[in-house]
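User: Please run a holo structure prediction.
Assistant: Happy to. Please share the sequence and the ligand.
User: Here you go; the ligand is iron/sulfur cluster.
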Amino acid sequence: MTNKYKHIFGPVASRRLGRSLGIDLIPFKTCTLDCVYCECGRTTNKTLERKDYFSPEEVLGELKDWYDKGGEADIVTLAGSGEPTLYKSLKKIIEGAKEITKLPVCLITNATLFYIEEVREAALLADVVMPSLDAADEKTFKKLNRPDPDLPFADYLDGLKAFCEAYRGKGRVDLEVFLVPGINDNEDQVTALSLLSRSLKVNCVQLNTAVRPPAEKDVLPIPREDMEKWARYFIPKAEVIASYHSAPLKEKKEVNEEELLETLSHRIMSLEDLVEAKGYPKTETEALLKTLLQKGSIHSRTQDGKEFFYV
Ligand code: SF4
């Protein structure tokens, strides 16, 4: 349904959010960070410059078209292949999305721009905010998240604290912590991250690791049992979200090539991810992926013995 759109994609099944309709506000890969684990690959435009990369009318026009044509979802999620808070008219998009769809809005963000008041004000309008925090100090932040040189860790942390304080009672904050072997999977870092998450009073902490092919090939996933061990360092215990298995949206009879290509242009996915998220039949999807690979319409990368596909 959404394959003719440039900014909206899905809905895809999310265990955390239900049927989530994505809005991508930022050109591929424009971000304040260049995380070693990023599943979208290396950041090609690392910046702190906030601007309207596309007009709000263009983005909201697509959403209105989707809605008017009977589009259905449980939530609208601002996410994608870059950092959504780099979009200057973020507030206008959140307000517009709520007005058009009457659905709750989720903001998935690396939270690095929360030190800017205008960004916090916009984010306060979201119903669910999923910020990231992977490092407890500047040195680890630089090594793992490779920030824009003008982005000090102290500003990032102060901004996140100010946001959580102002947002309390307004909506849900699910903090994502990404663990990378040899960088932050040690007792000092995890303990410090646990203390920070408690001081932020977030609703829950979700632990992730590189189960999808990361920007840097030598970044490996942390084994499940170790993730469970680190999860117990958090109070309450963190949730390990790395290998999730969600129910299909609704099983479809056939796989749609255009829709599949559109989905893979926003996110790298395995065959199992596609079957789960889109409800496609497995055998037909596998066959189509092979054909598209042969034609060169998609590419694949292998992580931990599993093949992932992308446009
Ligand atoms: S993981 Fe998120 S914050 Fe990190 S580089 Fe990728 S898009 Fe940016």
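The CA atoms of residues 116 and 267 lie 28 Å apart.
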